[in-house]
Specification:
The complex is a heterodimer of chains A (330) and B (64).
Chain A lengths: L1 H11 L5 E4 L3 E4 L4 E4 L9 E4 L18 E5 L2 H4 L9 H9 L3 E3 L7 H11 L5 E8 L11 E2 L2 E2 L2 E4 L5 E4 L8 H21 L25 H20 L3 E6 L3 H4 L12 H12 L3 E4 L1 H7 L15 H17 L4
Parallel strand pairs in A: 5-6, 5-7, 7-12, 12-13
Antiparallel strand pairs in A: 1-2, 3-4, 8-9, 10-11
Chain B lengths: L1 H13 L4 H27 L19
């Protein structure tokens, strides 16, 4: 009976909708169709349908002559907690009558976004690439082991040149992934400890070190790396006549009001990222003001955990459409 | 440098709240110490840089 109960519990646990990818560490499982429990909105189960490329999108239609709009980012773009057709990318497709491909994947970092753009975007003949970036998530470039998968990692060498450490071949196998991942996790925590940062014990999201002015220098390397990675994306797009656009989301902490101290600035990662984009000559929109304006406790734009909900995606799509149209990119 | 690293490994494990965690982190630290030391030496050899603890990748990524 105990064995049956264990088997039942195992069955009920949702199967992962992403798997090992030799280039990006992890990616959506191709041709997947399954329902998972919707932890963000328990009123309905989330149906996930991946196309042959492992993205939560309809198959690409090469017969469509106009260049597509490619949207890429993390779980906000992927559509955490909402139906596929309610995502900002799908709304953008409906409203602009353009083919919009959504390459979002949960927990994707800007490092993986860059590699995906360089290696996988061409297939979709994009005219515009929209990179959705949740400002807090800039730290993902420092995290090389995510959700049980070893990521590729960029680093700066002694000449300040950008280099890439690819996903080790052995990471294909679970056991080796766990061993390598264990080292990467320990190394990350060790470096943070040396830098006076502790994200494991008593973590307070309202005092995350990424927002703290007295920890600002610890993240200098992160932003240096980010800048170089973003330049790769920019240069690739320029060489291929693609318009690159960044959309910066509003972070959860900003909806909870002002911080407890003037030394804790929820705008800090957004400001630093904005500076990089401006310095690199990359067009972007900051969704913060609009999202905060549209948000209320009775009619929020986000779920409790900060992911944008259906209303939030609607707002996102409206702003994005206007930005792209104002630039005559669509 | 090596002794500082070992000291930090010990401090990290002592910083954990319960006994099991301390032992686990001590074990991890001792197992991973040679790799951390090697990375630190590589970083030192390359000179001061903004680089992370020597992620010396063998593959240079073809950008385009």
């Amino acid at each position: 009976m105990i064995l049956n109960q264990k088997q039942e519990r195992k069955k009920k646990k949702d199967k992962p909708f992403y798997g090992f990818d030799p280039e990006l560490g992890f990616w959506g499982v191709p041709n997947l169709k399954q329902r998972i429990k919707n932890s963000l909105n328990p009123s309905f189960d989330l149906e996930i349908i991946h196309n042959e490329d492992g993205i939560r999108n309809a198959p690409y239609k090469s017969s469509v002559s106009d260049g597509s709009i490619l949207c890429i980012g993390g779980s906000h773009t992927w559509g955490g907690g909402i139906k596929q057709e309610d995502r900002y990318s799908d709304l953008l497709a409906q409203r602009t009558n353009r083919q919009v491909m959504n390459m979002g994947q949960c927990s994707l970092g800007i490092d993986q976004v860059a590699i995906a753009i360089l290696n996988r975007a061409k297939k979709y003949n994009p005219k515009v690439i929209v990179v959705e970036q949740y400002p807090w998530a800039v730290t993902r470039v420092l995290n090389h082991y995510v959700n049980g998968y070893v990521k590729p990692s960029f680093y700066l060498d002694a000449n300040n040149d950008l280099k890439l450490k690819k996903v080790p071949r052995s990471a294909h196998f679970l056991l080796f992934r766990k061993i390598i991942g264990s080292f990467y996790s320990y190394r990350k925590e060790f470096k943070e400890f040396q830098g006076g940062i502790d994200l494991s014990e008593n973590y307070d999201p309202l005092a995350d070190p990424i927002f703290c002015y007295w920890k600002i220098h610890y993240y200098d390397y992160c932003y240096s790396l980010l800048e170089k990675i973003i330049l790769i994306c920019r240069d690739y797009c320029q060489q291929n006549n693609i318009q690159l656009f960044f959309a910066l989301g509003a972070i959860q902490q900003q909806f909870s009001g002002k911080s407890r101290s003037r030394l804790i600035d929820y705008d800090l990662p957004r400001k630093r990222l904005g500076n990089i984009l401006e310095k690199s000559g990359i067009a972007y929109v900051d969704m913060t003001e609009t999202m905060l304006k549209e948000h209320s406790s009775e009619d929020p734009v986000i779920f409790e955990d900060g992911h944008i909900n259906t209303k939030g995606h609607n707002v996102f799509a409206t702003v994005l459409q206007k930005e792209l149209e104002d630039r005559s990119w669509i | 440098m090596k002794s500082n690293l070992v000291k930090d490994i010990l401090w990290l494990s002592f910083a954990k709240k319960n006994f099991n965690q301390r032992i686990l982190y001590l074990f991890k630290g001792l197992v991973f110490a040679p790799f951390l030391i090697r990375e630190e030496r590589k970083q030192k050899r390359k000179g001061t840089s903004a680089s992370d603890i020597g992620l010396a990748g063998d593959d240079v990524y073809p950008l385009f």
